[in-house]
Amino acid sequence: MTAVRPAVLDWTEILEQSTAHVTTEYASLRRDGAPVTWPVSPYRGETGKSIDVSTGLTYPLKAERARRNPKVALSFSNPVGSGIESPATFVVLGMATVRDSDLRATSARYLQASNDRFPQAYKGAPDMVLRRMAFYWTRMWIDVTPVRVLWWPDGDLDEAPQVWEAGSEFVAPASDPEPQGRGAGSWTNKPAPDWKARARRAIERLGMPVLTTTTADGWPLPVRVRAAEQTETGFVVRPPAGIEVVDGPGCLTFHTHGSVFDSQENITLTGTCTRVGEDVEFTVERTLNEVNVPKNPLRRMAGMLTLRRELEHRLDAEAARRGQSVPKFDELDFRRR
Question: What percentage of the chain carries pLDDT values higher than 70?
């Protein structure tokens, strides 16, 4: 996969840096082996031996892909808001464990954990609005147990990464049982916007994207690129030193967020990758619909209520597939501080 330098780090340092990040680029694989990468928030695993991410029950594809193929990856390449003085850039390849057999417990955990980490995100939101957001609060968890970590000290992508390998004490538990029946699929039926219009000035606004490809041994590999230039058919990007890109399907993810996570903008493009010397030609096939979070509190609240109208009808069906009912907000052990 890479040319490497000897590792001089341990899991404690990896876990501390990863859970200080506001976002991680989470990559999973579709049925056809193509990677899809979205920015999500990372959390410390309950056992201290995993990095966990969450997804809503009404948009469960991140979890369903991981249950079908547990090889996933977490890229930590946007340290804004982390408070780390000299952040590394790193990628965690891990085995996923999906948790959704007790929606009350998984939702309560998310409510508490997200409020502890990002209280600004809920500041000023009326209780009435929060109680009507079951479509968002009802959560599944994906616990990522590490297998291998690629680590660029101080974010220096011009050098080959260090590699840390997990020991025998890191064993991923089995996922909860697969739900019955057919899933809800994509969260929206809206046609995807034209990628050129969507991605215009993306590099200027959002910075260097994260390129995700699939390794020869079947892992998604999301890496922050060193350079990128838009072309008529997509982008030409330069991966970090020491990374071998395998030609085939890929994903290009642009994103940014506020330092206190009070705003977020994402662009996710899927397509194909072809290695050309040090660079990769990424040919765009489509852009995926995404949810952006405006900084203005009133616009943010209006956006969530619009999203509620699109997603709420999926709640009961997805809970029923798991033999459960939708947990009630008032019943959950959550208090805003």
Answer: 85
